[in-house]
Amino acid sequence: MNNRINNNNCKVFSGRVMKISASAHCTHLQSRTSQPATQALQKNAILPEHLKNTNDMTDVHDKKTRSYNMSQIKGKDTKPEMLVRKFLFSHGIRYKLHDKKLPGKPDLVFPKYKKVVFIHGCFWHGHEGCKYFVVPKTRTEWWLNKINRNKDKDAECIMELKKGEWEIITIWECELKPNKRENKLKALVRNIKKTNE
Q1: Helix (H) or strand (E) run with residue 69 in it
Q2: Fewest beta carbons less than 10 Å away: which of 2, 19, 38, 194?
Q3: For residues 18 and 46, what is the distance between their CA atoms, to the nearest angstrom?
Q4: In the chain, what are the domains?
């Protein structure tokens, strides 16, 4: 490739002129370069030394914004939970919600059948082998500690519920995706109504 620097602080790439703006830390193409080519060259723009070690996965929000966003994540009445509740109600199955008297405050409680249902988000509860459980590349240790605490708490609650002779049913968020939802919910109805003889 025939590359050279001209007198206007522009670098010429095989006939294409690219002006490098040090103040903006980006490249500005002049002449006949197409938009895709422009975008490709901008990705490879020369960065100042202090930006070279920047992590590509750094948070796009400041701490205050991230804290607010995290506070808005619901612990109950989530979309997966509402899907399950509406389906069961339409099939004549009644339940109690988040019974504080039971360990872990199960999402759904069926006293008549002595069964409880937990509806878990795949990320927050660390669903092993699930494509929706992807550990973030930033603050990895912090996230793993948080998720492992959730898993430990889940295990403790299940142990306590079993001591009280409750049957535990766990539904994962990924099992409620459109291609799996109907079969999973029909199986749930059968499971709830099934008596242990």
Answers
A1: helix 63-71
A2: 2
A3: 12
A4: 3-51 (no CATH), 74-193 (3.40.960.10)
